[in-house]
């Protein structure tokens, strides 16, 4: 198959990867080829970890931090220090649609992306609030609106996406002046204020049994070496759901499994990507505002 300048030898395209849905590896390749123009801008320069299912999503999961040795030379990689400082990890990086197609042919259902880019890998260009509901989707929806209200008070813009899982992710674009520890400290304080505002709704307890029915505001994605599922990635779940950027006006009606490998391209052809391109923000002023709210 030819994608741009690259020729990619596809293998086992008839292999069923999603048994309940009849989605084959060929379907996955086709999806990532078509979504490339929409998805690649969100992946450029980001170290990736690859969640792969050569035998389908009910089979063994492979999870590659390092790009396997046999990957072709043209596939970009990023060498980054290990979290504990001992040695390097050589992550795959997607710079074009051909790279995405290559990974799909490797049965990579979900590429997980860093919150920073390789040229400044210690400074995230986004904050992500990972909203993990204890039960249904309703509490995630409410958390998204409550968090948006607070971040709006701080002067920060927010973007919302479904994860293809049970919850939602809220993104805030950053200007990369803060490192991960600073960004995470900010996110933790924001989550703390929201929890103080609605103590029955939210918790920042990492221990599951201490959450007692409250939605977990997971700010731990905002760390060196951590990932989040990027926009338009497929998830290894029945229905082949896709992590999907939303316009805020869509959140009232959306279902967590609504957008899938089979449907999301039609949506993009119809209305385009709902996320505006926002400039990255500094946390300095929002942090000052947060402290006055806190008092
Ligand atoms: P959901 O909406 O169901 O919570 P999610 O993608 O947010 O879906 P989480 O378990 O909250 O799932 O994890 C958040 C992110 O952290 C993921 O998108 C993924 O990139 C990363 N992550 C979490 N756990 C793992 C893991 N065991 N292996 C690899 N990456 C993980
Ligand atoms: Mn989550
Ligand atoms: Mn989480």
TrEMBL record:
Pfam families: LigD_Prim-Pol. InterPro entries: LigD_pol_dom (IPR014145), NHEJ_LigD (IPR052171). Signal peptide: none annotated. Residues 24-275 form the DNA ligase D polymerase domain. This is Bifunctional non-homologous end joining protein LigD.
């Amino acid at each position: 198959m030819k994608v741009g300048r690259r020729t990619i030898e596809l293998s086992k395209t008839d292999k069923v990867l999603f048994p309940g849905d009849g989605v084959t590896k060929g379907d996955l390749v086709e999806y990532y080829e078509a979504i490339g123009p929409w998805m690649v801008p969100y992946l450029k320069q980001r170290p990736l970890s690859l969640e792969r299912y050569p035998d389908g999503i009910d089979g063994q999961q492979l999870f590659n931090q390092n790009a396997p040795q046999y990957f072709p030379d043209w596939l970009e990689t990023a060498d980054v220090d290990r979290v504990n400082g001992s040695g390097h990890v050589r992550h795959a990086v997607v710079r074009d649609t051909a790279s995405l197609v290559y990974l799909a042919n490797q049965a990579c259902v979900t590429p997980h992306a860093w919150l920073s880019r390789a040229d400044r890998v210690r400074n995230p260009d986004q904050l992500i609030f990972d909203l993990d509901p204890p039960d249904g989707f309703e509490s995630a929806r409410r958390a998204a609106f409550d968090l948006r209200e607070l971040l709006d008070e701080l002067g920060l813009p927010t973007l919302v996406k479904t994860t293809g899982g049970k919850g939602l992710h809220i993104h805030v674009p950053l200007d990369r002046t803060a490192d991960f520890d600073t960004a995470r400290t900010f996110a933790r304080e924001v989550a703390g204020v929201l929890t103080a505002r609605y103590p029955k709704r939210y918790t920042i307890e990492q221990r599951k049994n201490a959450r007692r029915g409250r939605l977990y505001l997971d700010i731990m994605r905002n760390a060196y070496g951590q990932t989040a599922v990027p926009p338009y990635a497929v998830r290894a779940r029945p229905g082949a759901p896709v992590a999907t950027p939303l316009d805020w006006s869509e959140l009232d009606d959306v279902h967590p499994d609504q957008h899938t490998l089979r449907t999301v391209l039609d949506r993009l052809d119809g209305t385009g990507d709902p996320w505006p391109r926002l400039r990255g923000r500094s946390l300095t002023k929002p942090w000052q505002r947060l402290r006055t709210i806190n008092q």
